[in-house]
Structures are given as C-alpha cells and as structure tokens.
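Recall the central idea of this unit: under ordinary conditions, the amino acid sequence of a chain determines the structure it adopts. In this exercise we apply that idea directly, starting from the sequence alone.
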Amino acid sequence: MKTQQFLELLAGNQNKSLKFEYSSGKFVGTNYHITEVKHTTIESVDCGAGTDSWKETIIQLWESPDEKDKKEFMSTYKALSILKKVGRIKPFILEAEVKFEYSNKNFNTAQLFVNDYELNDNEFILKLAIEKTDCKAKEACGITENNEVTQEACCAPGSGCC
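Accordingly, the structure predicted from this sequence is:
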C-alpha cells in the first residue's frame, strides 16, 4: 500500500478504531503508540551487481507497558492527526510504500507490509505480513523458478553473481 492510499483511507474513515493484525488472528495491543515515522530511501546492490532504489514510509508501533489494561484502540482520527503533524515537519513521499515496524515479547522486530485491509462499521483493520527474503538476481546466479541452483552455481568464478 502506498503512503497516499493509507492517508486517504484514514481521512475517509476517521470515526473508526485503527487495528493492526500482524499475524493471522494476532493484533497489536490496544496500548500501542505511533512512536516514530521514518522516511527512508533504499539504495541497493544485489548479488548479481544489479542496482535499485526506492522509498518507504516506515511507521513504528510500540505497546506501552503502562497502558496494558487500555480498553480501546487508537482512532483513525488520532492516527491521522499524528501523521499530519509528522508531514508538516518532514513531508511524506506519497508514492512510497508504507510499512509498519513492530515487535512484542512473542514476535521479533519486523518491518511488515500491508497485505490487505478491512473496513467495517467500527474498525479499520490493516492486515500486515512479513516479506520473505529472495534472490533478486536469480538468472545471473543460475537459480531456477523452483529455487534450485543449476550447474553454474551461484558465486562460481565467472558466473556474474557476487
């Protein structure tokens, strides 16, 4: 999901509870806070010497131990007001992918992408997912569609990989 779409969904649904499903059936607690917003530029070189560049908006969620008994989730209105304040200080790149950084005692820190969302009468639920790592230079590294390494194994001298 792009940052612009996320902000538009918040603006169009300001009377709802904002919930984050970080794993199937598991939600960030009602005691979460938006603790940081990162505007990042990724400059990468893959193992086949290919370069790439893109931008991301990373919103960090943190569960306050002092509010563990809190009953209600943050409203979309409050989240939007926080993000508007951030945008006045550091403008958003609206076409950047939005991700959420989160962890708890049973879930290691991860940057999660928006896999889907659900809107109902009272809730805006973002369904988050972990993006698996992958080889971006499969052809140069001799990796087939089934992720099998061919005879010209990755990183062999002269393979074009690494």
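The chain has two domains: 3-131, 134-162.
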